[in-house]
Amino acid sequence: MHVQDWLETVPAVSIYALVGLVIGLESLGIPLPGEIVLVSAALLSSQHEGINPFILGACASIGAIVGDSIGYAIGRKGGRPLLAWLGAKFPRHFSEGHVATAERSFQKWGMWAVFFGRFIALLRIFAGPLAGVLRMPYWKFLIANVLGGIIWAGGTTAVIYYVGVVAESWLKRFSWLGLVAAVLVGLASMLVVRRKAKQTATEHATAETEPVPAAE
Fold first, then answer.
1. Cα–Cα dist 207/16, whole Å
2. DSSP codes joined into one string, 52-116
3. Sign of CA dihedral 64, 65, 71, 75
4. With contact defined as beta carbons under 8 Å apart, do 129 and 71 qualify?
5. Could you count the other beta carbons within 10 Å of the beta carbon of residue 9?
6. Is there a contact between 27 and 42 (Cβ–Cβ < 8 Å)?
7. How many CB atoms lie within 10 A of CB 105?
8. What's the rounded Cα separation, in Å, for the pair 66 and 28?
9. How far apart, in whole angstroms, are the C-alpha atoms of residue 66 and residue 202?
10. I want to staple 86 with a disulfide (CB 3.0 to 4.6 A). Which of 80, 94, 126, 171 is the partner?
């Protein structure tokens, strides 16, 4: 069953809780499809009055902030042995290459790696635990965590919700076609933001690896 088809069968309170839980676990460091669940729930809220988009966005934001904070605490206590253990358990997401890339981003951006990492799938999983491992001051982490969580979760909910509202007439006449169009437009808007963030990360990584000319 498709995620959205399944979401239509459960009460609104359960949807709020599910979105907050999945995003919280993903932010904690567990590879889960938090973005897909949030997009599906936001689109569903545009079609059903029983699901309040403001409550949905708030639950998603809280899940993101709390999950990142727990991940930070775990990373601070577990240190680098934790990253090695995660690499053994989830080699696809926590390989040495991924860890090195994320660590370079943190060294370059500092606390803002937590903020921008919210918009990039890989860093979204890494941000909390890695910030703890690198012993970033908690107040810096908290500021970036709160701003990133609210803007990412709230912004995604708002964009997808209004896309669904605009596509409502399509949904009435061409149910499946309108749904596909709404999802594609919503995902495209997020991909643009994510692509810009990835390009910035790549430019920083390339700049760091370029050799420094020897002085004459």
1. 42
2. -HHHHHHHHHHHHHHHHHHHHHHHHHHHHHHHHHHHHH-TTTS-HHHHHHHHHHHHHHTTHHHHH
3. positive
4. yes
5. 8
6. no
7. 26
8. 8
9. 28
10. 94
Q: For position 216, what pLDDT does the model report?
A: 39
pLDDT recorded at residue 188? 66
Placement of tokens 């809220």 in the chain: 45
- pLDDT category of residue 134 using cuts at 50, 70 and 90: confident
Interatomic CA distance for residues 111 and 194, integer angstroms:
18
Residue 144's nearest CA partner among 29, 27, 57 is 27
Tokens of 211: 């050799």
pLDDT at position 153 is: 93
Q: How far is CA 72 from the centre of its chain?
A: 15
Query: What is the widest separation between alpha-carbon atoms in the chain?
Result: 72
Residue whose token pair is 């937590």: 114
> Are 144 and 114 spatial neighbours (Cβ–Cβ below 8 Å)?
yes
Angle at 62 between CA 161 and CA 76, to 5 degrees: 135
Q: What tens digit of pLDDT does each residue of 160-209 get?
A: 888 877 766 555 555 555 556 556 655 665 565 556 556 655 655 555 55
